């Protein structure tokens, strides 16, 4: 029986996923969500900063607004790189799904921590602000399902 550490850090990467199917299907969902979200941040005119995250860019100087838009676009690029890694895992290396769930958990947990430590002014509630509260417990639950052996 493969121990839990080997399930998270397999000695060999392969396409043999041994966890619960629900965790696999949710990972496909997270992958699609990550790639789509990254493209929105990269290619929408405001990087999604005002149109989605409700940051009042129209109250900023042109330089300030441009800086925020660039930062959102760069964030989108980082998300795209992670999303492409997730696509590769879905395609060829499903044995890494438990590790990817740990990364997802850390990412969404740290979003909550950083939003608390460094709050920003918004004119509404951004969808990402709400989703972070859902994805933290969901990612850890799916992590445990991904290391649970199928019967």
Keywords:
transmembrane helix, DUF805 domain-containing protein, 151 residues, transmembrane, elongated, membrane, single chain, 67% helix, mainly alpha
Characterization of this structure:
The longest helix has 31 residues, at 62-92. The protein starts with a helix and ends with a helix. The chain has helices at residues 4-8, 21-43, 62-92, 97-117, 127-147. The model has no long low-confidence stretch (mean pLDDT 93). It contains 5 helices and no strands. With 151 residues, the protein is an all-alpha fold. It has one domain (18-147).
Secondary-structure map:
Elements: H1 4-8, H2 21-43, H3 62-92, H4 97-117, H5 127-147
Gist of the model:
By secondary structure, the protein is mostly helical.
Approximately what portion of the residues adopt beta-strand conformation? under 5%
Q: How large, in whole angstroms, is the Cα Rg?
A: 18 Å
Number of strands: 0
How far apart the termini lie comes to 12 Å
The assigned structural class equals: mainly alpha
Please state the average pLDDT score. Answer: 93
Low-confidence stretches: none
* Quaternary assembly: single chain
| Shape label | elongated
Q: How many distinct folded domains?
A: 1
Tally of contiguous helical segments: 5
The portion of residues assigned to helices is 55-70%
Transmembrane segments: 21-43, 63-89, 96-117, 129-147
Keywords: Membrane, Transmembrane, Transmembrane helix
Organism: Flammeovirga kamogawensis
Protein name: DUF805 domain-containing protein
